[in-house]
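Hi F.,

I've been meaning to write this up properly since the lab meeting, where we talked about keeping a consistent format for the predictions we share between groups. The idea is simple: the sequence comes first, exactly as it goes in, then the structure tokens exactly as they come out, then a line or two of notes. No screenshots and no reformatting. I'm using this chain as the first example so we have something concrete to point to.
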Amino acid sequence: MRIVTYNIHSGVGVDEVQSYSRIGQFLASQNVDIALIQEMDTRPCDRDTEQDIKDLCANHFIALSRSPALEETHGWYGNAILSRYPVLSTKTVDVSQDGFQPRNIQEVVLDTHVGPVRVINTHKGLKKQERRKQFALLAEYLEQSLAVSSIPLIVGGDFNEWQFFTRAFRTINQVLTEQKVAATFPTAWPLFRLDRMWTSFNDNKIEAQVLKTPETRYYSDHYPILLTFDDKTFEVI
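Output, unedited:
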């Protein structure tokens, strides 16, 4: 199974080209099964929302589950999960903080070929004080979820944590295993590990990597992270 987390910067690359189509085609070329997307934006009135979704799915993913942080007359902005598997359930938890841009936690349960898999996608705030509260809310949500469900869980997203020696994820690391990779932002000269992934299962055969290719160098200001594992990996800790 191949799972990606990717902040796509509204589909606007560092070359200033806006294209969901090329991102969708790239994910398809990488044979990605599940993609956690941040900063999807269908609000520009010169584009059609359904066409944006179709372009990102690229005749590869059968479902796009949306989780808007902002919703306007013409479209929405926020998180989305692309999947090659049927969706069993969806949930959005608001973790917005007063005075800051709306943020949420998106959860989707997917009916995969190895059984149900739970995926959580999130995009945290730009300011330290809001992120700390959002991290605490995420950790609380994870603890509660893991207490009542043994379904394998994958968490990913853009956490906007700039500090090199941060302790912000200490509580999350107590309940999940972080699949550590190198810096993902900015693509021109990666310095910061803004994008991260965790799993509720641990296996030395899990491969985690920053997906650096000629395409991802330009398609967004973030590099995506790719997790790859086989069907025998789903052993709950």
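Notes:
The chain has a mean pLDDT of 94.
The longest helix spans residues 128-148.

If this format works for you, I'll send the rest the same way.

G.
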